[in-house]
Design goal:
This protein is about 0% helix and about 50% strand. With about 120 residues, it is mainly beta. A hairpin with a 4-residue loop joins strand 7 and strand 8. The mean pLDDT is about 95.
Length: about 120
C-alpha cells in the first residue's frame, strides 16, 4: 500500500514563495507517476503539475513559469516549488500517485493514491 504525506503549506503574501513536499511510502513501482492537484472552496479539483519517474513533466497553463515540480527518487519524495504566488493560487494542495508512467496527465480521476492535503493561502 502507498501512503502520501504532504507538508510545506502555509500563508504568504502575493509574490512570495512556498515549497511543498510529499513523502511517499510503499513500493516505488506504485508511484511511477506523481502529481500535484489543488482544490479551492466551491471549485473542482484541478491538476497543477505531474512528473514521471524518468523526470518528464507537465504543467497547467496557469502555473507555467512559476511552479516547478521535481522528485527525488532516492528519497521517494515529490516537491512543488511555487514562486510568484497569486491569490488565485489559494487552495488545498494534494499529492497524488499512480503506478503507470503512461497517462500521467492532469486528470485527477486516473490517480490511485492521494495524500490528505496541505493548505496554501496567498493574500493580496
Amino acid at each position: 500500500q502507498v501512503q502520501l504525506v504532504e507538508s510545506g503549506g502555509g500563508s504568504v503574501q502575493a509574490g512570495g514563495s512556498l515549497r511543498l513536499s510529499c513523502a511517499a511510502s510503499g513500493p516505488t513501482d506504485r508511484t511511477r507517476c506523481m502529481g500535484w492537484f489543488r482544490q479551492a472552496p466551491g471549485k473542482e479539483r484541478e491538476g497543477v503539475a505531474t512528473i514521471v519517474s524518468g523526470s518528464s513533466t507537465l504543467y497547467a497553463e496557469s502555473v507555467k513559469g512559476r511552479f516547478t515540480i521535481s522528485r527525488d527518487n532516492t528519497k521517494n519524495t515529490l516537491y512543488l516549488q511555487m514562486n510568484s504566488l497569486k491569490p488565485e493560487d489559494t487552495a488545498m494542495y494534494y499529492c497524488a500517485a499512480r503506478p503507470y508512467s503512461w497517462g500521467c496527465g492532469l486528470i485527477y480521476n486516473v490517480f490511485t493514491y492521494w495524500g490528505q492535503g496541505t493548505q496554501v493561502t496567498v493574500s493580496s
